[in-house]
Fold each of these.
Amino acid sequence: MVASTGRTLRRGLRLACILTCLAGSALWALGGMAQSDAVAPQTAAVAAAAQRMGIYEMFLHADPVVKAVMLFLLLCSVATWTVLLEKSFLFARIRRNSEEFLAGFRRVQRVDQIGPLAAQAPETPLTRIWVAAQNEWEISRRRHGQKPFSPHQIDRLLQRMALAAGIAQEEELARLGNGMGLLATIGSTAPFIGLFGTVWGILHSFADIAAAKATSLSVVAPGIAEALLATAIGLFAAIPAVMIYNSFARSISRMTGTFDNFVAEFSTVASRELEEAL
């Protein structure tokens, strides 16, 4: 998914560069036409065009379709930074609480001591994984009574605990992955949405140029600049989304390793305790 998003962003960047070069060539050609034109420059039109070259002014004078594209991309950017803030705080809290729980877990060596520790610790994915495995442990112990487990029964119990923990782990990873699809979608589609706004704006700008029969570069440039602004906003939305997605994907991968190691550790504790009872 990360590689696919990166390839899509690179394609968008290449298209943006090609489109910018084409627009620049058009501006250069129109500028040459203006220099060879014997008609006196239209001072009022040039002054009006100069007032449209600020970003806010370009947005105000853009075509309604281009405006809609820009607003949508800005909303995508806001969503990206919202996901960044929410997940940054979430992951930091999970790491801090998980480290505290793991430190306490490694100090005890009995299954019956881990339950109270998990109940007192702040709620984290590790405590929820342990609770799922502990429920299977307690059910099996109640059904078996005071009789010691045979080696085959120990293996079956450890397998059931690992399965219960695996189900809980998948639920936790799904919860941690909330918002990742949004980041991937924004990162892969925002450049193309911006390019759509640019193409539409350039077409609309050339139509206005033909209708006004004005070839002065000062008159032509604002309309094309307004169109190119859509591509710039698209890249502004896409590049952070891809970088944030990659960062969170690495964090989730590290947490997955932590979860796997924790399952292996408590399986070792449970296996040792059951073997001691033989």
Amino acid sequence: MFLLATERKLSRQQSRVRASFQQLSDIQNQRARDGGDATDQLVRIITDPREIAGLATGLMSLAQQDFMVLDTYTFPCVPTESVAAPPIFPSQHQVRCRAVYEAEYFDHPVGQAILATGVIAGEEARVVPRLPLKLKIVDDTAALVPLTDTGVSTAMLVRSPTLIRVLRNYFELLWERATPIQVTAGRTSARQVSETAGPVISQRQVRILRLMVLGLKDEAIARRTDASLRTVRREISAIMDILMVSTRFAAGAAARRLGLIE
């Protein structure tokens, strides 16, 4: 029930984000036709790649308390090790820097290097199977929302308190569902590290997941785990919700990317 409720919250937040973007875009377009600029204080569409790049790297220095990032593994060109430079956190403030990455980062050596350098530098990082967009949020004051997959050609700089609040709520919902990223002995993995971090997948679910990947049917899994068939099917449904997939094959692939199974 909790997972279903969270999924519904995420869906509602995504709808609100899309609706807010459309409404603000419509307002800005109308103001531009009327020759006004009042909405520049709320939202600004940026099409200069150099300005977008400057904001993407410079927003963190403006943070006073919180800096939040959603990051998909989409780049304008094939990334190299040079993009894995550690983030520069503001030194004059105690800023909490949190990032949610999509699992595809684990499929690429460069992606793993990006995750590792961030965590070692002090970033709190978590991972989900997939993300719908890139996003950077600075406190309650600003957000940078790319309007293309890579985010280098068009972006929206948001200063509307209402929209920033929606984006922050959306980030927090994803953060609650995401799996913490660990870096140990040079290896990056996404595993449940403690009960206080919020349960992502239980040990019994991991065992059932492993048996699923081996191709066992529900009845055989029930016998192996000494559980009822009803319990096994309920756990499988929960696993699918946690990994945000709809097939057993996809569940196995997602679990491997997240480091839940070998």
Amino acid sequence: MEGHCEQVDFGGFYLRTRAQDSDTLVVCFENGGGRYRRADAPRFAFGEHLCAHAGLDSLHVMPKRMDWYQAPALRASLQRLRDSGFFTPYRRVVNFGSSMGGFGALAFGSLTGADQVVALQPRTTLFDSQLGWDSKFSRRHPVARRGRFADALRGLSPPCAVLVFADPLFSRDWRHARRVQQAQVIRVPGVKHAVPAFLAGIKQFRPHMIAAFHARFDPKQFYRDIRARRDSAQYQRYMRQHIAARGL
């Protein structure tokens, strides 16, 4: 893989950088992955191969447990990077993540000085009281929920462009997506909470994410390209279930 890579262990998380002499930095936040504790070892990070292929510099935030980016030490580390001028040389900074990583990408938008956030199926708040629907999240994930970084929308500054991808038929993800009022919300119907895997499966993840990193994302082209989902057995099965649930 191209570029110079360094990974630093901060106790509860890793910060991993890959430099390729680019004027664009992509700050990647790992998703939850379904396990509370993560592999405590050097590893390739979410988005690393994607950014390396595109020739973009990247900073990867890699928590050792599924804490939804609530560790004070992480915030302090990113603030030190900001105050040291780490983000300043870049013409463009993009925050990127999926699910828990989408939450992190949104929540730390102001701190990294992001020009754009690209969030796939993000949760937008850890406060159930902010939601207008029942959520099992609090019972499943024992993490602290207080302060500015517990609601991702508090981390966005108005000039930041936001691109959110979600399944409009999967109400949980769609409701979170619609909370981000400044976002351009891209519909990916019939895939539930598997937008990245679906896009990768039809070979549309890499080209459209890279286009978004360069501020060249074209929604019309995206919708044309994802029509292939209609031939997917997963999509057809989900649509049958969705129709049956509605009694149609």
